[in-house]
Design a protein that fits this description.
Elements (H helix, E strand, L loop, with lengths): L1 E5 L2 H18 L4 E4 L6 H12 L9 E4 L1 E3 L10 H8 L11 E2 L8 H14 L5 E4 L21 E4 L2 H7 L12 E4 L2 H5 L3 E6 L5 H7 L19 E6 L7
Parallel strand pairs: 1-10, 2-3, 2-6, 3-5, 6-9, 9-10
Antiparallel strand pairs: 4-8, 7-8
Helix pairs in contact: 1-2
The structure holds 2-amino-2-deoxy-6-O-phosphono-alpha-D-glucopyranose.
2-amino-2-deoxy-6-O-phosphono-alpha-D-glucopyranose binds next to α5.
């Protein structure tokens, strides 16, 4: 695991975008695993800027999003589908047919999860997975628990995550209680992983992730078992290291 402490959020975003750009420039049909949340917003903004300056071409890039809430229509402003389109896809040239975001409207979630996992395999696996981290150490929506799931699955969100994510909704009651997420195995299957953490609220989770112990109580700690992980943290998120 490489840990890079970076002075501020803007630089962290630029460095994350540079890693993505190198990957895409090296392999035109790169398969990217993409996160949502407030942390990667700066990285998406940098990638859009690079695209507008013709520095990066997403024409053959394939994307798989980490997770999505259950119960929000795709055009709901807090759905991850909406987030991805408004912050990234609408401004670059990723082909619609190459975008994958798990979505369960009326379909059986088990079938959707199985199909999602098969699509990742069919695409040849994820080349570069980008992650954020929850204040409770979750990655995607793999919540701390007695056990973790390997593959894409349905999940009940924890109180802590509902509370943390309620800042995006009008009220706490509007936060969905369930989501679909790639499993820890789907994430660990990526050839390369970068994890971004910014701000003091992530300091404890970052410390636990890197503590040397691997535990299902801190899903991000499993990344210690992966052979190519870069953790980009700003000074606040690194404050307990
Ligand atoms: C959500 C997402 C995660 C994300 C986390 C942190 O719960 N499911 O993928 O990493 O929030 O988000 P933020 O960057 O807003 O702190």
């Amino acid at each position: 695991m490489r840990i890079k402490t970076i002075d501020n959020y803007n630089e962290l975003s630029e460095q994350a975008a540079d890693i993505v750009a190198i990957e895409v420039q090296t392999k035109k049909n790169t398969v990217l695993g993409l996160p949502t949340g407030s942390t990667p917003l700066g990285m998406y903004a940098c990638l859009v800027k690079m695209y507008k300056k013709n520095e990066i071409d997403f024409k053959n890039v394939i994307t798989f999003n980490l997770d999505e809430y259950i119960g929000l229509p795709p055009d709901h402003p807090q759905s991850y589908n909406y987030y991805m389109h408004s912050n990234f896809f609408d401004h670059v040239n990723v082909k619609k047919s190459n975008i994958h975001i798990p979505h369960c409207k009326d379909q059986d979630p088990i079938l959707i999860c199985r199909e999602y996992e098969q699509n990742i395999k069919r695409a040849g696996g994820i080349d570069l997975q980008i992650l954020g981290i929850g204040t409770n150490g979750h990655i995607g929506f793999n919540e701390p628990d007695e056990y973790l799931y390997t593959e894409t699955h349905l999940v009940e969100l924890t109180e802590e995550t509902i509370e943390a994510n309620s800042r995006f909704f009008k009220s706490r009651d509007e936060v969905p209680l369930q989501a679909v997420t790639m499993g820890v195995g789907s994430i660990m299957g990526a050839a390369k992983i970068i994890l971004l953490a910014s701000g003091e609220s992530k300091a404890e989770a970052v410390k636990e992730m890197l503590s040397g112990k691997v535990t299902t109580r801190v899903p991000a700690s499993f990344l210690q078992l992966h052979r190519d992980v870069t953790v980009l943290v700003d000074i606040e998120a690194a404050s307990l290291l």
